[in-house]
Amino acid sequence: MLIGLNPSTEITGGPWFSETELDVEFINELCRVVLRFIVSKSFSSDPEKLLPASHFQYPNLYQIHEFICSSGITSTELGYDDVRMLLNRLEFDGEIEKIIGAHNRAINDDFEDEDGDLFVYRAIKNETCGSSLASIPCGSCPVNY
């Protein structure tokens, strides 16, 4: 292989693999750092008060990518697609949600994330499972008391 060429991600596995093993600890640590960054932008000074969806300071893909690159937490180069994979994982795990940015709601009719700037990410306030609403039966299932 020539020195100036980078091997394909199909061969190397991309940034998520070290040698031939999936680097789960690396992925988990990056997710924790990204989540802390998003949480810092999602709550007001009161940690119990989630900012409204119309808040203008939720980070987008570019801002999160810039944070990862400038923080020095990894020497591995991550592209926008790599950061999007981390965000997708956090979204599927129920840690964050992807919403249309407040500054884009009035001017954009199509909601496709072509440029990475249309959507922003905010943390989700985790509710406790033992809340009083969770213990109320729905009425459609037979309940034996």
What is the secondary structure topology, with strand pairs?
Layout: H1 9-12, E1 17-18, E2 21-22, H2 24-42, H3 61-71, H4 80-92, E3 96-100, E4 119-123
Antiparallel strand pairs: 1-2, 3-4
Note down, in words, how this protein is organized:
The protein has a single domain (15-126), classed as Arc Repressor Mutant, subunit A, CATH 1.10.10. Helices cover 32% and strands 10% of the residues. It has helices spanning 9-12, 24-42, 61-71, 80-92; strands spanning 17-18, 21-22, 96-100, 119-123. The strands form two sheets. It has a two-stranded antiparallel sheet with strand order 1-2. Strands 3-4 form a two-stranded antiparallel sheet. A hairpin with a 2-residue loop joins β1 (17-18) and β2. α2 (24-42) packs across α4 and α3 (61-71) crosses α4. It is globular. Mean pLDDT is 75; it is low at 105-111 and 127-132.
CATH topology: Arc Repressor Mutant, subunit A
Would you tell me the structural class of the helices and strands? Answer: alpha+beta
Helical coverage, percent range: 25-40%
What is the CATH architecture term?
A: Orthogonal Bundle
Counting H and I runs of at least 4 residues, what is the number of helices? 4
Return the CATH class. Answer: Mainly Alpha
Strand residue percentage: 5-15%
Cα shape: globular
Main β-sheet: number of strands, strand sense, barrel status? 2 strands, antiparallel
Based on DSSP secondary structure assignment, what is the total number of beta strands? Answer: 4
Instruction: Give the topology string: H per helix, E per strand.
Output: HEEHHHEE
Question: Termini distance?
Answer: 71 Å
Average of pLDDT: 75
Tally of structural domains: 1
| Low-pLDDT residue intervals, each spanning 5 or more residues | 105-111, 127-132
Spatial sequence of strands, sheet with the most strands: 1-2
Rg, nearest Å? 20 Å
